[in-house]
Amino acid sequence: MRTDDVVIVGAGVIGLVSALFLAESGLAVRVLERGQIGQEASWAGGGILSPLHPWRYLPEVRRLAAAGMAAYPELARSLLEHTGIDPEWQASGLLILESTDHPFPTDPVGFGAGEGQTWHLWDGVTAAAQFPDFRLRHGQRALWCPEVAQVRNPRLLKALHRRCQQLGVRFFPGTEVRAFVRDDAGKLRTIVTDQGEISSTRAIVTAGAWSRQLLVDAGLEFPIKPMRGQMLLLQGEPGALPSLLLHGPHYLVQRRDGLLLVGSSTEDVGFDKSSTVAIREELLAFIHEFFPPARDYPVLRQWAGLRPGSPENRPFIGAVFDGSGLYIASGHFRYGLTMAPATASILREQILGEPTRAPAVMPS
């Protein structure tokens, strides 16, 4: 019987990329998922590969995001080559509209340069001339961020799943982890699931909003909690949206086939994944104001996902303590997709005992 080198708990984007990187390094990997593969927060978001309003985040969070963003072109190319599934990575650019509750920093262009980005600050007249299909408020400034890209996250997740299977990763959906059993020295010994026990000395918890409860039961406390985000899907005309658009907490993303995603809310409601009429109306008001052609687009669907929130949006990445064999990668809030390649690199390097090249983030 094959022995697993690593067991990953949670098959969202971070669990899948971690499984991919570890399998590419020659390790035998098993993935346990309480639901279906790639169907929680990683699937539910808009696929923007960048922190929204980056100046609101800590430098170490921005560094991790930048490392993840830089890895995506090659990751997407490789997945398409090996699986035939195109994750649709594309540099769409992001137009950020200033608002009273999300003001720009004093020198946004200089801030962007410090992050290695070429940003352009425009007054309303210039922005309207550059993007006539967007409707700005009177006197509203705009920040153009041409390097920002997107990926079609459902397709990315399918490609990751297929590539992992090609590399021999074993998946067990519908398997809920009940406990991590450790020996007297604190080292992982057994994983208890609703399908039975698994002997393992190394496991990674990548269970998103569910990570905290899994580790609390093992006597470990990580302040991670679910934060609901609601989305709308509209059927638009292909190529109608000239770029990604962000205003306050809301954004627009268009896929190549014309589908328009409108996001999103941030709600502290526990594990409630229901969607509401109030948020639907809020998101429709946003898109109708700033992109008037959408008034004629039918709404196809509304849904919600649960992001793993953490203090100051700083994810927890790495061994829960030295020698435990138990690792965590969670608490990325809105940016698990953006940070996934860099997060998986940190985990791979720690597990293989290699020097860590990716930026460290995990709070003490």
TrEMBL record:
Transmembrane regions listed in the UniProt entry: 6-29
Keyword Ligase: no
Lineage: superkingdom: Bacteria
Protein name: Glycine oxidase ThiO
UniProt-listed PANTHER family: GLYCINE OXIDASE (PTHR13847:SF289), SARCOSINE DEHYDROGENASE-RELATED (PTHR13847)
Residues covered by the FAD dependent oxidoreductase domain: 5-349
GO cellular component: cytoplasm
Gene Ontology MF terms in the entry: glycine oxidase activity
Class in the EC hierarchy, top level: oxidoreductase
The organism of origin for this protein: Acidithiobacillus caldus (strain ATCC 51756 / DSM 8584 / KU)
